[in-house]
Amino acid sequence: MEIAIFSPSSLFFEEDDDDNDNHIHTSVEENAETQETYVERKHQFPGMELIIREFSFHQLNANLLWPGTFAFAEWLVQHRSCIEGRRIIELGSGTGALAIFLRKSYNLDITTSDYDDQEIMENIAHNCSANDLPVIPHIKHTWGDKFPNSDPDWDLIIASDILLYVKQYPNLIQTISFLLKSYKHSDKTKVSPIRNDETHGDVVLPWPAFLMSWRRRIGKEDESIFFGGCEKVGLEVKHIGSRVYCISLIGNEKSN
Known about the structure:
By secondary structure, this protein is α/β, with parallel strands linked by helices. The chain is built from 5 helices and 12 strands. The protein is globular.
């Protein structure tokens, strides 16, 4: 059986996409019972190589490791203070690669999440095991649906390359808004405004915050639909460099 391996980088128009030709150690396995085909690749992340199994096809588009994941991983390494000490949930985790990288690198308290789909959850668990890591907690959640946890306490939400489908923007915004507005500050919570520390090159984020990397180019109209939708529900959007955006509650500018 011949398998055509699709490269997600073909959907992107970045001058640095050559870096994503990448990681070209590839193996293919097929599930005899379901005839599902998987592609297993070795991907180079900052300071380590990860083995990630991807679906050759998945109806919910959670099958591939997108180029923005690598760019976001590099950014987070350079701005490590943004994630240290945070309790993190990743939206649109897909293969789980970014969460696996962050857990292995910094032993962060991180949870993955994606569509309410068993295959996605099982594949993330597989990728954890393939990289000698205990299975990361996972939440099956389709954006816009009732969130499984009625009292979430993640103080940092992260995501990369999740603005592919404009029709999903209202649902995504609903989920982001719920997570941010449901978070309850504790006495130990540090609430700081977004600012660039020119001396150390650091970015200080509010608690809670949604940190999103978006590398795929979309039209200005689509971009305004998402960012405008965020503002309509009381969220503030700030670009903090390298196509990384911080979304937080409007007025959450109180400092300790």
